[in-house]
Amino acid sequence: MLEGTHNFRDTGGMPLTGGGATRPGVLFRSDALGALTPAGLAALADTPIGVVVDFRTPAERAMAPDLLPDGRPFQVVELSILEGAMSGMAQDLMRSGATDPALLAQAMAHLPTLGELYVGMLQHGATAFAEVARLIAASTDDAPTAVLVHCTAGKDRTGVATALMLEAVGADRAAVVADYAASETNLAGPWADAMLATVERMGAPLTPGLRELVTGTPAAAIAHALAWIDAEHGGAEGYLRSGGLTDAELAALRARLAA
């Protein structure tokens, strides 16, 4: 864990369906990096990470800019994905009439489930997710070029992206789902409490559905997204091809991430 984050981890060591495991030190995932402490910055500088993929919207970045070490270069790749942005969801609720209880209740009744949110993300994000795969495939052990993907919480946009990469290289699906679900435990406590307090200040009732959207990572949500990928594209490989990833790039991704 990097000090100042809540949901940082290496995706290495995940079992592959054909034997072996995903390679450590290649793909990392995290929540936002805006609260890194000096110790966290020093620890990040000591990792093989050289590429930081930020899925947040420009508004999210402006509210909480990432902190990165000064001692060596990092390539920052901004791939904004709206679905999963709580700032956007908050704005939508306010535009729906957050000061009017009846209008707010109506807006709350039409909130998507996490699984629905992820399908919408996948429908619009194939090009962005293919670019993540391309960056991982291009990384090497010769320089700090490992890839860190993050959004605000590191659970939704980051969770879908990570699941896609792991599925594409043949990671065991149960392990992929378990990795996704771990975010809820990692975010529990101060981070989740602060986010829920923010929602309450907006005047939104903390229904079970809204709590899940803000802080949850139920296994059923990512399973729903993966089932959609299977049905529509025949799996993660087909989905990434739909975003422009070539067969050669897919092979390079497997060679890089699957030990």
UniProtKB/TrEMBL annotation:
Coiled-coil portions: none
InterPro entries recorded: Prot-tyrosine_phosphatase-like (IPR029021), Tyr/Ser_Pase_IphP-type (IPR026893), Tyr_Pase_AS (IPR016130), Tyr_Pase_dom (IPR000387)
UniProt superkingdom: Bacteria
Any one Pfam family match given in the protein's UniProt record, by short name: Y_phosphatase3
Domain Tyrosine specific protein phosphatases: 127-166
Name of this protein: Phosphatase
Organism: Microbacterium terricola
